[in-house]
Amino acid sequence: MRKGSFRLVAAAVAIALGVSACGSSSDDAAKTDTEFEIFTWWASGGEAAGLQGMIDVFTAQNPDTEFINAAIAGGAGVNAKAVLTSRLEADNPPDSFQAHAGMELDGYVKTGKLEDLTSLYESEGWDKVFPSDLIKTLTVDGKIYSVPVNIHRANVLWWNPGAAAKAGVTAAPKTLDEFMGALDKFKKSGIDGIALAGKGDWAIAHLLDWVLLATLGPDKFDGLFNGSTSWTGPEVAEALKNFQKILSYGNKGAANLDWPDAGRLVTQGKAGFFIMGDWASAQWQSDGLKLGTDYTWAPAPMKDGNVAVYQWLSDSFTLPVGAPHRNAAIAWLKVCGSKAGQDAFNPKKGSISARTDSDLSLYDDYLKAVAQQWKTDRLVGSTVHGVTGNNALMAAYNSAVGKYFSGGFKDNAGLAKDLQAAYDAGKA
Fold this sequence. Notes:
Elements: H1 4-16, H2 26-32, E1 35-39, H3 45-61, E2 66-69, H4 78-89, E3 96-100, H5 104-110, H6 118-124, H7 126-129, H8 132-136, E4 139-140, E5 143-144, E6 147-148, E7 152-153, E8 156-159, H9 161-167, H10 176-188, E9 192-194, H11 202-216, H12 218-223, H13 234-247, H14 259-267, E10 271-275, H15 279-286, E11 296-299, E12 309-313, E13 315-317, H16 326-337, H17 339-349, H18 365-376, E14 378-381, H19 391-406, H20 412-427
Parallel strand pairs: 1-2, 1-3, 9-10, 12-14
Antiparallel strand pairs: 3-13, 4-5, 6-13, 7-12, 8-10, 8-11
């Protein structure tokens, strides 16, 4: 493995020679960098297929640059981030790494691990094709630090039409009361009401994130992260009662299942609902299943029935300080932000383009629908996927939920206190 000291010297030489983000091109990468290492957690299914689509665009433009895909699977990035942290601390960064838009970036920026990409936005015209509100989530102290490649919807309700018909569930529930009623119908038909994935904690935390949003509504949910809503107050207490009840309808053995395994319970008719981001659809399509036949979807319910609330996240790529192949990294970032790159990536990844000019004819009916909803719905950030919380908050949040779930989901007051502690950890 290349030593961190060499990486830093290489970066210093590049800067001394006047290599800038604005001036670099794919041709520069081909002439000066013979390899490029990317670090992600996209290692299988639709995620890997989507990444390969963008890699194909890069390699077509840079045929003499070897592409090194250092993906680490599992845990919605938890496993990858642990390895990444150790590499960054050892001054041994990859050439570019994946990070969620939002608060997740803050820790990397404040510890001096990322280069400012503002000039690249100006030279590539991204300040005109990325939504301004999205750019704000990538900006720290007036500087932009990553390039978004997509938008995911987190609060999606998935189910199997055949299983629903068997249970007498004839329409997508819009309210929490309707949702609870449908869970009961599934249970009475001999099907687990909801598919749960407890391996690694994050998928259960993802479920809680939606329950908090659904119970509190978007304003009070946002208040959890600006201090105006109490984590130990009555609104969260009500949400945790809902969470507790929903978990009681889950599948046995959930602690040993990752989210693709839990998802298969739904597509095989062994569980009713699944609350998961839209990467689930890409996974199922990579398995040969058909949207609308083998599975279908709706916006996840809200307490008041207002399903026009879009809980979102965005994957993005960065330029680490000390990247050993900086020209190749900049060439990669240009592909990430390009229309060709994003339209090669997102239809396979199960997400929509971060750009406002994507070619929607390339996307399936689900993605076409959410592309419109992204423009019109109330937008609320995902906690588990880095929009509203930094890495410290996310780690503590996931751990708190994992403790609650593995303990038999009995101690609601204890969970509320642990969630408060997670929020405090993010502020430290």
